[in-house]
Each structure stands twice: as structure tokens, then as C-alpha cells.
Amino acid sequence: MSHPTVLLHAISDDPLPARQTDREHITAAIYAAATANDGYVHIAQVREHITRNVWPPMIGAVMSGMRHKMRWTGAYAPNGGPSGNGAKPARIWKLNPTAKDQPCSPN
User: Fold this and answer.
1) Is the pLDDT of residue 23 over 50?
2) What are phi and psi of 75, to 5 degrees?
């Protein structure tokens, strides 16, 4: 079985047109959540800005792929969401909007 990071990047980089559309929509939701929360981003807040059906694993995969544009604050909040992981802690990030876009890499 592959390392979870490799799987996240495989999902995040999926070239299917539907996945590209999901990725664009989720990225916009991440920026909207950051704008609404003084630059802070948490997956539960991102979900509030997703206005169409997306493949659920893409949300975390896209956030993982954007880690070069975000800094972990050291804080956690409940994951929320419809899965059985609602109470599981998820990291709170601070978006750095000036970071350059970089390709997703498993390292």
C-alpha cells in the first residue's frame, strides 16, 4: 500500500476533467474561507464555501497540495463534515497569498 502522502498527491493531481473542475472549485473555496476568516483556513470552513458536488477526498487532497501556500498555526479544530471523522482534530492553517504556485510533490 502506498504512503498516504503519495495517495493524496495522486488524488490532487488527477487529470480527469471532472477532477480539474473539482480542484478549481475547492481552491476557490479555500481562498474564500481565508478571506472570510482573516487568512485562517480550516477544512470545515472550506466546506462552507463549496457550492457544488465535489469528490470528498479532493478537499483534503487539494489542501495538502497547497501546503506550500499555507503555514500551520499549531492549532486544531474538529474536522466536521459528513464522515465518521467529525470530531477528529484537523489543522488550522494561515494562508500566505504571496507564495508562488508550485507543482504538487510527494516530498
Assistant:
1) yes
2) -105, 160
